[in-house]
Amino acid sequence: MTTYRYDLDGVRHHFADLRELLAKASLAKSGDYLAGIAAVSEEERVAARFALADLPLRTFLDETVVPYEDDEVTRLIQDTHDAEAFAPVVHMTVGQFRDWLLDYSTDAVALAALAPGLTPEMVAAVSKLMRNQDLVLVASKAEVVSRFRTTVGLHGRLSTRLQPNHPTDDPLGVAASTLDGLLNGSGDAVIGINPATDNVQGATRLLILLDELRQRYEIPMQSCVLTHVTNTLEIIARGGPVDLVFQSIAGTEGANRAFGIDLAVLDEAHQAALELGRGTVGDNLMYFETGQGSALSADSHHDVDQQTLEARAYAVARTYSPLLVNTVVGFIGPEYLYDGKQITRAGLEDHFCGKLLGVPMGCDICYTNHAEADQNDMDNLLTLLGVAGVNFIMGVPGADDIMLYYQSTSFHDANYLRQVLGRRPAPEFEAWLQRMGVTDTDGRLAPGDRPTPLLAALAEVGGHEAA
Amino acid sequence: MKPPKVLDDLRALRAITAARIGLPRAGSSIATADMLAFDRDHARARDAVHLPFDHASLLAGLRERGLVAIAVHSAAPDRATYLQRPDLGRRLAAESRERLLVAADDPVPELVLVIADGLSTAAVHGNALPLLDALLPLIRERGWRLAPVVVASQGRVALADEVGECLGARLAVNMIGERPGLSAADSLGIYLTWGPRVGRKDSERNCISNVRHGGLAHAEAAALLMRLAGMAFTRQLSGVALKDDRQLLE
Predict the structure, then answer these.
(1) Which of A10, A333, A393, B21 has the largest count of CB atoms under 10 Å?
(2) Residue B170 lies in a domain
(3) What distance in Å separates the CA atoms of residue B161 and residue A140, rounded to the nearest whole number?
């Protein structure tokens, strides 16, 4: 195994292997300290970054961070690498690759062509050399578009996942939050419910609720109940209205096994949903969620830093041409991302790495109450990711998820971003919002006293309550 | 007819969900009153995590109830370390371990009660003694021999494994502050572990959650705890297997 060293002003730093070099070059994250792999000093961290800058990119094709024989994610990455697409950067070091990415002439077309030639480890490596503004700039150039009943990820657009969770999966409670979201212009990425219980019947009932709402108001939208992929397979088998297949994924085979999945079951579910043919403008139908720290949490991190492993999860994702990939960046807690600074950095890294790998990246900009973070930190990351061109963010009523007990972004947060950056919803959904009188042609929300056809649905939910 | 006020209608639906729906807007943003209400709830959640643990009052309260009580500290020296190193919060500080080993006594106690700050000191301050007042008569009725009550600072759920191991208890019960949410910052969780020893898995525990004023009442939580503990003694185990059994019984 190759060892690495770097002489920084006369002091020699040693790095035992590629994964140690990557870990020590990572920006400070509590999860890497918890794993015992982080740099022991800032000096060592910067020495590792110098060493990484000199590393030829092709090193990542010759040396793996998780053994090929032991891990199907490594095999997927190595076996599907596109050498032809890699050609424009084949001769570069990681540092030269950073400079190339920042060059004026590197545009959306060049980045899209390069994506199949990049491995997640290359992308993670270059991100470790980048400042936050570099992560924003390069990601803003990339355009990753996906389609089902709406078109998500076009430049100049910002979509939202409407997240109408309820602690007991009460259909009326879910419907009330859904209507509130729609009336605030939310839901063009997906209306996605995290179920409180792991129950096929309950999930099917919620899918039917959303599907009826969609058909009744002819909403260009897709729905999803974020239940385990094996549950979704069962719902499909029983004839339930499945638009998107959801699954949490991670960057190692072991961590995926802890989620109760492997690549074979993802293949199976992807095929099963494709056969339903429910998309109208496209057939991207997988919805994946990820987050730094999940592999360590599953004790399957192989002493690789959490950011590199997170990028490997995107290599899993891109295999299935997903509609949405969502990094749930602050949900995991302060033992992995301690404070607003670490959450911000991780969100920007994840979005950048996903976009470079050709994944339609969104972000659940969020935190728990035991993290050193608050809504102002979320505002900052929200704004940065908006500038970076994030495909979608969450829309949670008042930013307070009453089922999962964490804080995310509100419908209003998305509208702030649309307003300040001039972003519009997905084109199909934007036209529908105007048809329904929810927004005007400038994208402004109608005043609260203006009737829209959706009020009938609202009255119905209220009527159920009265009855 | 006057057009319906959409936001008012939505707000009326708050009877069916605690979600923050129908918020009045200023432009597209949340208007002042609801923005401040959110900050109020978050402030309470933050305070619940960071409020210093008043273990002295708790120890005094336990002694007033005729209980032998011992204060211990986890291997996490402070809150910042505790939040970033859950592994340290699961182990006793060396001197605390010594103190418990000295306190271990024959015959073997059936039960050790641990009260740990966890992620919400507010939950422990508000609920630990009221829960004990509901629980102690039930324990005495059963005649279970109690180990000294252990009050643990910077403790995680699994800290009770080492505590129970040191004291030789057959069942460990950890009453611990749960991670605060915006809707409730003072929920206490109760975790039961049969045959406590270092290295027990979470699947080997049973949990009673949301014990607080306005949540699961103290008397109900005590009754549920006694039922689970009784089943653990009968089956000589705790965790997933016990839960399955309970579902079958119901």
Answers:
(1) A393
(2) yes
(3) 50
- Hunting for tokens 């119901």 — which residue is that? B250
Domain annotation covers residue B4:
no
Interface membership of B215 toward A (CB under 8 Å): no
Higher-pLDDT residue of B233, B107: B233
ipTM of the complex: 0.94
Helix B121-142 to helix B32-50 angle (10° resolution) is 60
User: Which of B3, B22, B49 shows the shortest C-beta gap to A369?
Assistant: B49
CA A171 – CA A344 distance, rounded (Å): 34
User: What pTM did the predictor assign?
Assistant: 0.93
Q: What is the pLDDT of residues B43-56, one digit of tens each?
A: 999 999 999 999 99
Sign of the alpha-carbon dihedral angle for A160, A166, A171, A174: negative
With CB atoms and an 8 Å threshold, state whether B28 touches A444.
yes
Q: What DSSP state is assigned to residue A287?
A: E
Output the domain CATH number for residue B194: 3.40.50.11240
CA nearest neighbour of B89 among B111, B112, B73, B100: B73
Displacement of CA B54 from its chain's centroid (Å): 15
Contacts of A439 (CB under 8 A, 6+ apart): A185, A430, A433, A445, A446
Question: Could you give the CA distance from residue A370 to residue A440 in angstroms, rounded to a whole number?
Answer: 40
> Which positions of chain A have pLDDT values less than 70?
1, 448-449, 463-467
Look at B19 and A452 and tell me if their CB atoms are within 8 Å: no
Enclosing H/E stretch for B209: strand B205-211
Closest to A354 measured CA to CA, from A142, A71, A75:
A142
| Residues of A whose CB is below 8 A from B11 | none
pLDDT at A453: 85
Q: Which residues have C-beta within 8 Å of that of residue A343, sequence separation ≥ 6?
A: A329, A330, A337, A367, A371, A373, A377, A381
To the nearest whole Å, the CA of B23 is away from the closest chain A CA by 8
CA gap B192, B236 in Å, rounded: 12
B61 in any annotated domain:
yes
In a domain, B17, yes or no: no
**pLDDT of res. A449:** 67
Could you give the CA distance from residue A230 to residue A260 in angstroms, rounded to a whole number?
9
d(CA B196, CA B104): 14
Give the Cα separation of A313 and A309 in Å (integer): 7
Distance CA A312, CA A76 (A): 10
pLDDT score for B243: 62
Domains of chain B: total: 1
CB A152 within 8 A of CB A145: yes
